[in-house]
Every structure is written in structure tokens, then in C-alpha cells.
Amino acid sequence: MRLPLQMAAVVLSLFAVAEPRAETLPLPADLVALPSEQGEALLFGAEARSDFAPLSAQFVTQINPAFCGPATIAMVLNALELPRPPSDATLGLGLFDQDNVFSAAAEAAKPRAEVLRGGMTLDDLGAFLGSYGLDVAVTHAGDSSLDTFRDTAVAGLNDRDRFVLVNYLRSAIGQEKGGHISPLAAYDADTDRFLVLDVSRYKYPPIWVEAEALFGAMETPDADNGGRSRGFVVVGR
Description:
By secondary structure, this protein is an alpha+beta fold. The chain has helices at about 5-15, 35-45, 50-55, 70-80, 105-110, 110-120, 120-130, 145-155, 210-220; strands at about 30-35, 135-140, 160-170, 180-190, 195, 205-210, 230-235. Helices cover about 35% and strands about 15% of the residues. It has a seven-stranded antiparallel β-sheet with strand order 1-6-5-4-3-7-2, sandwiched between helices.
């Protein structure tokens, strides 16, 4: 089934650029940029993509190098349609942004000052989302398997009320270079690739990455989290 024309318009308006990758770092050959002919074809033919529309409608770029977590969280909270606090970014209209996601309860889970200094670990991400009363399942890749990850992620991507967030090591998939957090938006079974809506749009476009490579990038140790592996979070109401 092809995406409707309205969805194609979303892809083009949010992620296409006049000169693809002109202001981003070059991608390794085994990663596929969404704003490319091959990337769009993968989206149109993807078997699991229910999360693409709500996430892309709320897409934001992280406001500093340490805020991949808050950017991802803001997207997900807006996509889940939780009651939204006033935002300075919208002249006081209700919207979760990378500042107001730090509610009192969220600050108790991971203070803003600490995120600014060192970002978020996988467990920080889960605790932060849990502070909003959401149903959160945190899985370290070292405690899981590629097949379990694939099955769990595909199920989440087919459920508009649940979202899948990944914490992975960029260098493990040939990017520059440290740990990163972003949401998944689709899965193409023919190529066994997931679409990562990378929130550092100034650095890389959204990419299609092979499931095995992504899982390997999650199965890396995180020194900031006691050496435990990175992994994924499934979150919903």
C-alpha cells in the first residue's frame, strides 16, 4: 500500500531540502537518507509506519548537542496528545518544547542542568518519560536480542498510541560519533530497515538503517550508565 498524497507532502515539506545533505555530514554508503529517492520509496512501501505521521507532525531539531533526549521527549509527548503546557516557542500556546518538558517531576528524574552537562542515558530517558505517568518499558540491548527488538519495535510502529525510542552509538553505524537518542518512525520488511527520525537535523537527515546494524549500535556499553548497554524504550499512554 502506498502512502496517501497528503503523507507524501509531509515528507517533502518536513524533510526535503533543495540540496540534499548540503549542510549535513556525509552519510556512510549503507545508510539511506529519507530525503532521497530511495528513502522516500522505502517509506511508501514500509509495512510498519503508523507512527510516522504523528511523529513527523511534531518533529523538532535538538536545540543543543546534549538535548537529543529532551527533543525526542517533546516530540513524543506532543504526539501522544498529553495536555500541553504553555510554550514560549508558540507565544504561550500549549506545546511541549525542550524547555518546558522539565516539569517538577521530570526534574526529579533528571535535572536540566545535568542533561546540559552530559545528556541522557537510556535509564534517564525511561525515568523522565515515566514522570509523566506514561506506560514505559526500558530494554537494554544486552538483555535482549535482535529478533526481540525487531518484533517489539514493529509492533510499536504499527500502534499509533505507542512509540519506540532508540539510544545508540553513532560511531557504530559510521556516523560522528557519540551516544544519541531519537525516535523510530517506520520499518521496511523487504530491506529489514528502520527509519530513525534523527533529531539533530543540523548534523544528519532522518535515515534508514538495517535492523542488525541498529541493534549492534544499541548493544554498546555506556560509560555514563555504569557500563550497561544502550537500548530502546517503548512508551504509550
